[in-house]
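Here is one chain, start to finish.
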Amino acid sequence: MKGLIVKINGKIEEFTYTGYYSLSNAVGGLIETIASARCPETELEYTLWGNEEGRMHAQANNPDFKNNYAAQRVTAYMTGTSIQGLLSQHGNFVVLGVNEGESVGLSDYLMETIKTLAVSPEEAKKHEDKYDEPFAHFRGFS
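Its structure:
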């Protein structure tokens, strides 16, 4: 089934999902959900998948896990969040549709819309060294 791969070089290309291993290979390891949304045109739910250990690989200066600015743009689109409010995202990511808990292909509308969020390799390079540490707020006890 068809989905999209969001690469660290800024490109967003078609991806063929054939099961867990194809997704794991695409993101370079263990998978985790980054964001989920519902398509405004078709009501199809869709998910952005990434590597659960991407931030750890980035800390170790693994060149395959640079910050992915195009993935940040996809996350901002999906969540309606400003890109400035997002943490860095590391490695390649995959977008797939979801129907009743099962991965399904993306609609043509989503394929075309998400592809517009790609950036040039030069723009991707400007953001590749960004690294944010996750943080927690302690608000005290009541």
